[in-house]
């Protein structure tokens, strides 16, 4: 199964980073395509997007200055199927992408994604104290997977904080 394309560009407000594509995403070629994944509704309900986008519209997020990528590009049933070698390669490639494209915020969609990227084990939700690429803010949000046991409203509130952070950073850079 082929990897799905990143939707990434320079001057992004937020680059969303997932573990890796689901099998459904691999089949369709679109990010967060599994019907049980709540990514698109979380973005809308938190105010990050003006409407609920469909997975087939994932490329349109770049128009809003948002991007999509994964730490590992190979589709799998779950993150447990990702090898240490894939994570190592993914860490290096992700850091290169962040350094090259310089998004204002990198939102790691799941604590485990950030832990794999950073090597930091104790992680809290939200803006991180240390940013791994200078000039970019690291933010950790819950995974949008339907397997996550947090209540959706709790998840949406964390993404609302992401939206507030984005608005603050964008306003600062405009001045």
Automatic annotation (TrEMBL):
Highest taxon above the source species: Bacteria
Write the Enzyme Commission number(s) for this entry: 3.2.2.28
Q: Name one Pfam family in it.
A: UDG
Which GO MF terms does the UniProt record name? pyrimidine-specific mismatch base pair DNA N-glycosylase activity; uracil DNA N-glycosylase activity
Its keywords, alphabetically, are: DNA damage, DNA repair, Glycosidase, Hydrolase
One of the GO BP terms on file: base-excision repair, AP site formation
Describe the location of the Uracil-DNA glycosylase-like domain by residue ranges: 7-156
Q: Tell me the InterPro entries matching this sequence.
A: MUG/TDG (IPR015637), Uracil-DNA_glycosylase-like (IPR005122), Uracil-DNA_glycosylase-like_sf (IPR036895)
Full protein name:
Double-stranded uracil-DNA glycosylase
* Species in which this protein is naturally found: Sutcliffiella horikoshii
């Amino acid at each position: 199964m082929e990897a799905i394309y990143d939707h990434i560009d320079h001057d992004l407000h937020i680059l969303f980073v997932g573990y890796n594509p689901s099998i459904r995403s691999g089949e369709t070629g679109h990010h967060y395509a599994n019907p049980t994944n709540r990514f698109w509704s979380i973005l809308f309900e938190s105010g990050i997007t003006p409407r609920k986008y469909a997975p087939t519209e994932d490329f349109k997020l770049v128009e809003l200055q948002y991007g999509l990528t994964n730490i590992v590009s190979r589709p799998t049933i779950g993150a447990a199927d990702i090898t240490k070698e894939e994570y190592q390669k993914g860490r290096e490639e992700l850091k290169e992408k962040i350094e090259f494209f310089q998004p204002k915020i990198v939102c790691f969609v799941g604590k485990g994604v950030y832990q794999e990227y950073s090597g930091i084990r104790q992680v809290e939700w939200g803006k991180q104290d240390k940013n791994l690429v200078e000039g970019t803010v690291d933010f950790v949000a819950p995974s949008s997977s339907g397997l996550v046991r947090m209540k959706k409203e709790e998840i949406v509130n964390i993404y609302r904080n992401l939206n507030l952070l984005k608005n603050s950073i964008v306003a600062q850079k405009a001045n």
